[in-house]
């Protein structure tokens, strides 16, 4: 039995379960003509260290891939570099396992945590004023997102998490931000689980992304009960157009 829900495996399978150009025990190269332009190159490195690269036929032609020539992850990445094709820095992708989902759906949300609405505009504005611009940019927590939850202490909003549907999928991408004086007190963990419970109730799977070097965010994901699914890289907008 797989760890993760069918929603998650189907989402990634839609892009990566296409014509296999090359495959070995470690590296798999897939050609998919249906990729959107901003995802015409993607690389997914799963938690068990298998690497799946998916590209459009145009990218395959640009890289001059040939079944008569050897291929590996190293060769593939070198070909991207030689063609001037850049990838964004990788993100960790975390999800809840089916077992953890069951726990979240039956949990009682703490009294100091609740859903935020437009009626909390003043409260949320004060929260934003107390956070640094860098933290606000990194967390991407917004009151007008699809769902927003907050944790309160000393009469103030001290931690907030927001979600929005990821494209047209049934994944809900989340961000979370705790004000510095209140970090390390469990606010973020509880808010992440509370908003995830809400997402499950609406038929969505929570998705948590963070950059590989964001150790604090990685620690929060694990503390919140999330499990690493993969590392995800996607083509950078600075890469040359093929038109």
TrEMBL record:
Residue span(s) of domain N-acetyltransferase: 111-243
GO MF, one annotated term: acyltransferase activity, transferring groups other than amino-acyl groups
Cross-referenced Pfam families: Acetyltransf_1 (PF00583)
Protein name: N-acetyltransferase domain-containing protein
Species of the source: Pseudogracilibacillus auburnensis
